[in-house]
Amino acid sequence: GVDLGKLMSQTGLVTLDPGFVNTAACESDITYIDGDAGILRYRGYPIEELAGKSNFIEVSYLLIYGELPSQQQYDAFAERIRKHTLLHEDLKQFFDGFPRDAHPMPVLSSAVSALSTFYQDSLNPFDKEQVELSTVRLLAKLPTIAAYAYKKSVGQPFLYPDNSLGLVENFHRMTFGFPAEPYEVDPVMTKALDLLFILHADHEQNCSTSTVRMVGSSEANLFASISAGINALFGPLHGGANSAVLEMLEGIRANGGDVDTFVERVKNKEPGVKLMGFGHRVYKNYDPRAAIIKKTADEVLGKLGANDPLLDIALRLEEKALSDDYFVERKLYPNVDFYTGLIYKAMGFPTKFFTVLFALGRLPGWIAHWREMLEDPARKISRPRQVYTGYPERSYLEIGKR
Ligand code: ACO
Prior knowledge:
By secondary structure, this protein is mainly alpha-helical. The chain contains 18 helices and 3 strands.
C-alpha cells in the first residue's frame, strides 16, 4: 500500500482537520466503537456483557493484556496490585502543600507526576519488567492518592490501605472510613462503583487517551504520560462534564425545576449554556454506557434510599431533549456522564470529586494505549502540522519607532 501520510509530506501537502474529526492517529486493537449503532466493545467483548459479568480488575487485565485472564492469572494480577497500594511516606507530605479547597484533579495529576521522582526504578518505557512495575504501581496507588486528596479536602486523617480488601472496597474505605472505626463493606456501593469504573475503562482515542499517547510518543515515562491524561480529562467538555451535569441540574432546581426554559436557553445558544451530558463526537445514537447507567441509577438510588429530586429533573430533561428537533437533527443523545453524577452524589461524593472517579476508571485504558503505542513498530513521535495564517515576512522596528 501507499503511505499517504508520507506521500503528502513529501509533496508538501497537509490536511487541515481541527479537532481531528476525520484523522486516525494510529491503528489500535483495544476498543471498538460504532457510533451510529451505539456499539462499544473492549477487545471484542460487548460492554453490556462485561458490565453484567466481569469486574474492574478483570477488565483492566483484559484491556492491558488483550485477553481475559485465567483464574491463576487473575489471582496473581490482583495480588500484585494489592501489594502496591501503599504510597511512599514522603509522598504523603506532598498533600500538605496544597490549599484545603484545592480541586482534587490537579492534586491527582501532580501526585501522579511526582510518582516518577519516588519510583525511579520503573521509568524505562522499553524495559518490560519496569513497564509491568509502573503499570501495577499506578493501578494500585491511584485509588490511594484519590482517597488522600478527598481526606485532605475535608480535613480528615489519612487511612492506610487495608490489603485484606479488594481494590474498590479499599478505595471506598480509605475515602469514607475513619482510622479508629471498623469499616463495613457496603456491597451496593462498591458493586455500583466497580460497574462505573468498568464503563469508563476505555473509549479509544478520546481527548485524554490521545494526550497520553501523544506525551508517551516522545518516550516520556508512564507516570508523566498519565499525569498529562488526567489534566486533559479535567476539562468540562471531557471528564469534567460529570460535575458540570450536576451543577446544571442544581441550577434548574434553583429556578423552580423549569426544564422547558432551560432547553430554550440551550437552543438559543446562550453563551456558556449547553445541555451538559448530551452529545458526543462519535456516538450519534444513545451512548450504550448511558443506557446501562440509567438502569443502574434507578436501582442504586432506590437501594441507597436516596430520593433525589434532581433525578426527576434529569428524566424530564432527557425526555424533552429527545423529542425536540434541535437535539434530534444534531443527533444529540445522553452520554455516559448524564446520569453518573446523580449516582456519585447519592454515594456521598462531593461534586468536585466526580471527575476523579472518572480518572480511576479510565486508568487501565490509558495504560493499555500507552503500552500499545510503544510496542507499535510504526510508532512515530506525534507532531501535527499546521496551516500558517500569520503575517508574511516583515522587518523589525526599534522600540522607539513603533
Ligand atoms: N448542548 C447543546 N448543543 C450541543 C451540545 C450540547 N450538549 N453538543 C453539541 N451541540 C450542538 C453544537 O452547538 C452544534 O450545533 P450547530 O451545528 O448548530 O453549531 C452541533 O450540536 C454539533 O456539535 P459539535 O460541538 O460540533 O460536536 P463535537 O463533536 O465537536 O462535540 C461534545 C462533542 C464536546 C461532547 C459536545 O457534544 C458537548 O460539548 N457536550 C456537552 C459536554 C459533555 O457532555 N461532554 C462529555 C462528553 S463524553 C465524555 O467525555 C465522557
